[in-house]
Predict the 3D structure of the following.
Amino acid sequence: MLNPAPPSKMDLIYSALANRRRFFADGWGDVDGLLAAGPGWAGPDPPAPAEIQWVKERRQDGAFIRTGHFESSYGAPGFPDVCRRAYLEWILPPGAGPDTPICLHFAATGDEGFERRRRAMALPLLRHGIASLLLENPYYGLRRPAGQRGKFLRSFADLWRMGSATVEEGRALLGWLEAQGFTRLGVTGISMGGHMAAGTAALWPGPLATACCITPHSAQVIFTEGILKRQVAWEVMGAAPDPVERVRGLLAVTDLCSLPPPRRPDAAVIVAGRRDAYIPAYSPVRLQRHWPGSVLRWLDSGHVTAFLFHRRTFVRAVREAFAAMESGGR
């Protein structure tokens, strides 16, 4: 049941203060070339398992942490050279083995590096016996192209490449985990990270525990309906008769409801905020209905306040998803 609660004031304030720059200031980019090269991240065949090179190990807060990198197999035109090396952090309990559950974490918009996800999600999960593998998004952190300011992608084509590459890399990492003998696997993320996790789960051939936190069913609603629409440089995208409708049409490829549900939708937990100004309330409902047996947990919260005050709920969602997968359903 949809709640007509007004949008969070914190969301409105944060958006005004934190988004003074705008997305796609360079316009569309080479969208036509990308469309000619492939359908985005909806390809059915998983990439080869990642070939990871581990470069550093340390112990921290009772965890064994390894950092490493691998070469992305994503090869669409215009993918920057600096994005081609993918960086990751693996957080394990002492004595981890093939029976250890491992959750792959995707980054939220603007989440560069690993510190935030390590502190907010991975270390709390470790206390419950769940290990984590953190992937740094292309276009962020060590993978951010020269000239890009923070999270503000310079062109719409960069958004297309970011999403496509992230889902492909996530599938390559799941393949690597399987090749190492791990069988209890899951995916999670917050906001954009949850959308990447959901897309990865939908395109992965095996069962996964899936926890999507304040996640849209499609990137369409983020850039054409939610408050982030105000931070798009629409005036430089005016070559099309209606830039908003063209963005909506192009982002149809990100609609999770156009993909089959995950192999284990009953092991999926979706967390949503009733007063989210970034994601309309119908969006997580649509995703939950498309994933039969999944659970939708509502927070009396906006998008930003969910980040700030409901991280324990996100951790609990991951735990619940793993428990549901291992019990054979709720």
In short: The chain is about 35% helix and 15% strand.
